[in-house]
Amino acid sequence: MNRIKTYSICFVGIFICCGFAVIQHKEVLFDYPEYWPKPAYDFSKLSMTEEEFQLGRHLFYDPILSRDNTISCASCHLQATGFTHVDHDLSHGIDGNIGTRNSMTLMNLAWSTSFMWDGGVNHIEVQALAPITSEDEMDNSLEAIVEKLNASEKYKTLFYRVHNDSVVTGQKTLLALTQFVVMLNSYNSKYDKYIRNEAGGEFTAQEKNGLELFRTNCASCHKEPLFTSQDFKNIGLAVDTTLNDFGRMGITANKSDSLKFKVPTLRNIQFTSPYMHDGRFETLQEVLQHYTTGIQQSNTLAPELKNDILLTPNERVDLLVFLRTLSDTDFLFNKRFNYPNNY
Ligand code: HEC
Ligand code: HEC
């Protein structure tokens, strides 16, 4: 296990001394398996403590961040479905408004170098501003949030525990949200146990065959062990003429980026339906149907998809069986990541 210390002083608990509270912080460790690459996120600039992680967790689950106190980050990012919005093709936000894209899973984000389906956000510490200010999501402003949080006894206490100062600022709020989402790591699936030769990781012949098929046909983009290359690719989906979403080109204005979208991770894919940037496919069978018979040709299509992928019916089943080994119930039901009851 690799381990990054995110805080150098390690004390536990709160001590009351001479009438004022001296807060002593407990460090939080960022763990990941040895066979993984180094995270892209620069942890040397981060002083993360347990108190800060818990503050981020409270903020993530609190509808106080939206204009009318109805929508929290967790409204569209539910833990049990890999922190995405199950059953919603396009995301559903404030006033019942429907957005233009499918909510993304949140996991192993410390390895991402750009965020959103089109990579429109290049630093995780400012990412939260996008949903907060989007008219279809939370329709709020950082100033209004700071005002609400400063009027809340709960948040004054939580911010005090982190900063020895109860004054809430926008920067501290965004940092706390980052410190929660950056800790959402998934690395205990059956696949991981298989790679680590651990108990519970014995693959059946079908799973082994599925892994081989995956490595031949899919892993150039859904690269192990994170199951994403972090790249942008056009996989030949037909353009939805109501949404007219050309993906990465909307950010770079470069024609060569037309119809390219971020390669999503396939970890916990069994639970994150519907699939693709616009949630057009309900099932993994439909996804395979696309890769085997549905690819639309265009100038920016990924070269490895110029020809449909050939898979027999049995091979499709094996591939689907393999994809289920990417499910990590330790992550989906990890109590540290769920709704916080008290503070
Ligand atoms: C109304 C639904 C909704 C709400 C509320 C929402 N999100 Fe999202 N989230 C989305 C959608 C949709 C995307 C993809 C957006 C895009 O590509 O344009 C996304 C993308 C993301 C990503 C990028 C993931 C990646 O791999 O690139 C992060 C991180 C994220 N959201 C965190 C948050 C946080 C933190 C909050 C609360 C401050 C939040 N979201 C609130 C729907 C929502
Ligand atoms: C050329 C790169 C590339 C290859 C090869 C590739 N994918 Fe993808 N995959 C992507 C991209 C990019 C997306 C997102 C596309 C979008 O939403 O527009 C995606 C989306 C998916 C999704 C939906 C994920 C989600 O969260 O919505 C699944 C499932 C998937 N791919 C499985 C596979 C399988 C199985 C194979 C092999 C048969 C494969 N992919 C081959 C790039 C690739």
If you had to describe this structure to a student in words, what would you say it looks like?
There is one protein chain. The protein has helices spanning 50-60, 73-76, 124-127, 129-133, 142-150, 153-163, 170-181, 190-195, 205-217, 249-252, 284-294, 313-324, 329-332, and strands spanning 2-5, 14-17, 20-23, 29-32, 232-233, 261-262. The chain has two domains: 2-186, Orthogonal Bundle (Cytochrome Bc1 Complex, Chain D, domain 2); 190-327, Cytochrome Bc1 Complex, Chain D, domain 2. The chain is mainly alpha-helical and 343 residues long. The model is unreliable at 8-23 (pLDDT under 50). Helix 1 (50-60) runs antiparallel to helix 6 (153-163), helix 1 crosses helix 7 (170-181) and helix 9 crosses helix 12. Bound molecules: heme C (2 copies). Residues 217-218, 220-222, 233, 235, 237, 261, 263-264, 266, 269, 272, 275-277, 284, 287, 291, 302, 304-305, 309, 319 line the site of one heme C (HEC).
Q: How would you spell out the order of helices and strands? A: EEEEHHHHHHHHHEHEHHH
| N-end to C-end Cα span | 30 Å
Overall pLDDT score: 91
User: Strand-residue fraction?
Assistant: 5-15%
**Strand count, sense and closure of the main sheet?**
2 strands, antiparallel
Give the proportion of residues in helices. Answer: 25-40%
- Give the low-confidence spans: 8-23
- Enumerate the distinct ligands: heme C
CATH architecture level-2 label of the largest domain: Orthogonal Bundle
Tell the overall outline: globular
